[in-house]
Amino acid sequence: MALIVQKYGGTSVGTVERIEKVAERVMRWRAAGHDIVVVTSAMSGETNRLLGMAKGIDANATPRELDMLAATGEQVTIALLAIALQKRGQEARSYTGGQVRILTDDAHTKARIREIDTQRIRDDLRAGRVVVVAGFQGVDDDGNITTLGRGGSDTSGVALAAALKADECQIYTDVDGVYTTDPRVEPKARRLDKITFEEMLEMASLGSKVLQIRSVEFAGKYNVPLRVLSSFDEGAFEDHPGTLITYEENGMEEALISGIAFNRDEAQLTIKGVPDAPGVAYRILGPIADANIEVDMIVQNIGADGTTDMTFTVHRNDYSKAMDVLEGVAKDVGARQVAGLANIVKVSVVGVGMRSHAGIASTMFAALAREGINIHMISTSEIKISVVLDEKYLELAVRTLHEAFGLDKAA
Ligand code: ADP
Ligand code: ASP
Ligand code: MG
Predict the structure, then answer these.
(1) Considering its fold, how many domains does the chain have in total?
(2) What's the pLDDT tens digit per position in 191-225?
(3) Would you say the C-alpha torsion 243, 246, 248, 249 has a positive or negative sign?
(4) Residue 189's CB: how many other CB atoms inside 10 A?
(5) How far is the CA of 14 from the centre of ligand 3 (A)?
(6) What does the alpha-carbon distance between residue 225 and residue 251 come to, in Å, rounded to a whole number?
(7) Full domain range(s) for residue 81
(8) What pLDDT digit, counting tens, does each position of 11-55 carry?
(9) Separation of 212 CA from ligand 2 center, angstroms?
(10) Which ligand is nearest to the CA of 156?
């Protein structure tokens, strides 16, 4: 008998019929003798709908009220699932994050979990109940409802699994595992049986939205066995085991590249002809940080004729704000020109095998060159290479790289 935390995403609880299917799956796991804690997302599209209504009233609605509003989506699905379980003769109780006491900091809309009180859940499990917990939400020290950032139910699931020392955290979604790249962009993408925490962390932070990045951080830190699988596969678990996210093992290093991630949410800004003097990077990026804009990639050219150029990327939503700040900066530092591109994307290849192999970058650049795809920026770390491209090349680049690294062929 095991204790399993199962998280069901928006599509998996997207209709009453889907919720009944989830109840049936939970019944099967119960029948096999396991203790089950379920974490649900809001029905697909619901969080966007709720936030859209708020934006309709005021684009600058306060984060506290946005959290109060967005957290209601998950309250609907937990109650419906508990009702569906009770109808099947299974005792069940649903709880909001605040009722469990999932304690977070007070950073509304992107709160971090600090502590989880597991007493109530343990009591229910001992009494033979299935516990259904609202994902994405918690409560701060003052009792305000907080949310954990988009996609945050993954993190609720993993954090609960860590706090309960569960045997496994299963993330049920609309794909049957983690693929070599988003199967919506490359239909030849292949499901991975296993991927390391480190690689999954890179994939998530480079744009693969299959798992929220914080959930992977949490699972790695607290050593929670994490599995991604489909809520649409009806057959036996053994036939559809999904993808296990695990520590590096012998035999896992064979693949040079595990996957390709991409991020469509980026924009690029350039400041040209900046007098090349100590402190110039700070004078440019300091005001950007002060405006609460997060910078991703930064490239500064080698100075020539006493001036230099700097290019950096920001979230696309911050593009016009960043441009305004940069225009002010350009005047202050005596730069020649400011330029920008809002329609760029970042495409990254990820793999722990890169550590011990040369030539990954040249394979990547050669493949992109053959297709006539121009690279705006490049950045590398030990296990990834990222390039910034025009958005129109995204699909072509992903498919080209997928083929160039042989990801469509079984490892
Ligand atoms: P949920 O609502 O269940 O949380 P998400 O939409 O957040 O589901 O995540 C699942 C989606 O992630 C898939 O439908 C797929 O399009 C996308 N995705 C992106 N990259 C990958 C990848 N490497 N492997 C699998 N799915 C991916
Ligand atoms: N409902 C939230 C969102 O759409 C959280 C989640 O689904 O994980 O972002
Ligand atoms: Mg998700």
Answers:
(1) 2
(2) 999 999 999 999 999 999 999 999 999 999 999 99
(3) negative
(4) 22
(5) 13
(6) 19
(7) 3-247
(8) 999 999 999 999 999 999 999 999 999 999 999 999 999 999 999
(9) 10
(10) 2
